[in-house]
């Protein structure tokens, strides 16, 4: 039987690397889009990389979400069965520094893919997954589900909201099988170093081993629903295997503060943290030494205070549920370091 062809935008990212591995296991021919970079940006897919002279099922192509020609050329050449758009400037804080670029990549980039599917008349052949985000809920109260209204609080979230609605519009206007996954925060051992979970895990592991470095953080009272990326890419794939395209919330339904996360990591490392002070003066001490400090530069101009997802729809229709909880997630992240 002919292999299904999948095209992944954002294959070098956390989710892209897990998804590529999942699809290879499912016997897909996997194509990934990578950006030209002066240093290697393919570390997360090193273990599945095969020299193109020998590869039968894994191929990388240069492209960029800001370059409509590269997107259109790839889609018209490959005519994929499934396209996963995981490419994004995905850092919320950075989106305040790079608002136009973030809108271009995360918002218009999505439109460029949908338009390529449409103009190449691939509606009947190509299914499309859009990496939506719980950030779109912004200030809406939890639990958030598919019916909750969106109140985005950052250029990143606003750009992703454009991507969300343009995906729905192309589904309705042109009959494209297109789904929005509205995924709550998900982490893993290959999470980027500037996201708060990885930043905490990396720093506490080093401090435990004797490093003198300190951990500087912003708002440690925001609440998040943290899952494991390995579980979440399975949900992406499931969304594209249904009879009709729909949008789904993917979450764990559990919520913790950043401070809870710090304490959980510390507990697993057998470190007791004592907290003193409040607000910008709050500090964390380990064995009498100051190891955690608050730095106002990590506060965002507008914050999303509280996210907790209700994934009832995914459980009912996709038969999806998370296999990890925060405990097993933290264990997995620590295990890969110590
Ligand atoms: P990530 O680790 O930051 O990966 C982002 C990917 O996008 C990387 O492969 C990156 O390439 C690529 N990319 C960035 N700008 C690009 C451009 N201009 N052209 C082409 N590719 C570009 O993000 P992630 O955590 O895997 O998340 C995957 C997707 O899900 C993102 O769209 C994110 O916004 C969304 N999302 C993530 C979460 C989460 O908690 N992880 C939750 C909800 C939604 P380089 O490697 O070259 O930088
Ligand atoms: N990154 C970071 N660094 N965040 C910090 C820090 C810090 O030093 N200190 C406190 N925080 C707080 C942030 O203000 C936020 O409330 C929370 O920790 C989580 O921040 P991130 O880990 O950067 O994730 P995020 O929730 O902003 O965004 C992630 O999840 C979204 C889904 O809700 C990203 O993966 C997005 O791409 C994704 O869409």
Quick synopsis:
This protein is an alpha/beta fold. The chain has ten helices and 15 strands. It has a domain at 5-189 and 228-253 and 307-323: 3-Layer(aba) Sandwich (Rossmann fold), CATH 3.40.50.720.
In sequence order, what are the helices and strands, one letter per element? Answer: EHEEHEHHEHEEHEEEHEEHEEEHH
Total DSSP E strands: 15
CATH H level, superfamily name of the domain at 5-189 and 228-253 and 307-323: NAD(P)-binding Rossmann-like Domain
Work out the radius of gyration: 20 Å
Q: Supply the CATH class of the domain at 5-189 and 228-253 and 307-323.
A: Alpha Beta
Q: What is the overall shape? A: globular
Percent of residues in β-strands: 15-25%
Order of adjacent strands in the largest pleated sheet? 3-2-1-4-5-6-11
Classification by helices and strands: alpha/beta
Helicity, as a percent range: 25-40%
Which architecture of the domain at 5-189 and 228-253 and 307-323 does the CATH hierarchy give at level 2?
3-Layer(aba) Sandwich
Describe what this molecule looks like in 3D.
The radius of gyration is 20 Å and the shape is globular. It has a domain at 5-189 and 228-253 and 307-323: Rossmann fold. It is built from 10 helices and 15 strands. The relative contact order is 0.13. The longest helix is centred in the N-terminal third of the chain and has 21 residues, at 99-119. It has helices spanning 14-25, 68-78, 92-97, 99-119, 155-174, 196-208, 229-239, 258-268, 312-318, 326-335, and strands at residues 5-9, 29-34, 58-62, 82-85, 127-133, 177-183, 186-187, 215-217, 223-224, 227-228, 248-250, 256-257, 273-276, 283-286, 289-294. A 7-stranded parallel β-sheet has the order 3-2-1-4-5-6-11, sandwiched between helices. A 4-stranded mixed β-sheet has the order 8-15-14-13, with helices on one face. Strands 7-10 form a two-stranded parallel sheet. It is an alpha/beta fold.
């Amino acid at each position: 039987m002919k292999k299904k062809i999948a095209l992944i935008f954002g294959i070098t990212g956390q989710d892209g690397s897990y998804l590529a591995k999942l699809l290879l296991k499912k016997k897909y021919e996997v194509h990934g889009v990578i950006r030209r970079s002066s240093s290697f940006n393919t570390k997360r897919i090193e273990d599945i990389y095969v020299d193109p002279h020998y590869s039968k099922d894994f191929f990388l192509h240069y492209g960029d979400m800001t370059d409509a020609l590269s997107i259109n050329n790839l889609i018209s050449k490959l005519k994929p069965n499934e396209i996963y758009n995981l490419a994004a400037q995905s850092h919320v804080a950075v989106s305040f520094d790079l608002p136009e670029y973030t809108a271009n990549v995360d918002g218009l980039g999505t439109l460029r893919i949908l338009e390529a599917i449409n103009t190449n008349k691939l509606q009947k052949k190509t299914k499309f997954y859009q990496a939506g985000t719980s950030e779109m809920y912004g200030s809406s109260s939890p639990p958030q589900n598919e019916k909750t209204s969106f109140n985005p609080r950052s250029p990143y979230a606003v750009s992703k909201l454009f991507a969300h609605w343009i995906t729905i519009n192309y589904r309705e206007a042109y009959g494209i099988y297109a789904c929005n996954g509205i995924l709550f925060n998900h982490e893993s051992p290959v999470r980027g170093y500037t996201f708060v979970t990885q930043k905490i895990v990396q720093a506490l592991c080093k401090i435990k081993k004797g490093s003198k470095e300190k951990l500087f953080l912003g708002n440690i009272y925001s609440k998040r629903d943290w899952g494991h990326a390995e579980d979440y890419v399975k949900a992406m794939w499931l969304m594209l295997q249904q009879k009709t395209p729909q949008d789904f919330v993917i979450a764990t339904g559990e919520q913790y503060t950043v401070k809870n996360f710090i304490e959980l990591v510390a507990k697993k490392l057998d470190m007791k943290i004592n907290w003193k002070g409040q607000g910008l003066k709050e500090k964390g001490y380990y064995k009498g030494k100051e190891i955690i400090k608050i730095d106002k530069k990590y506060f965002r101009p507008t914050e999303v205070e509280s996210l907790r997802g209700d994934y009832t729809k995914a459980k009912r229709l996709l038969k999806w549920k998370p296999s990890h909880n925060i405990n097993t997630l933290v264990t997995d992240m620590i295990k890969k370091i110590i």
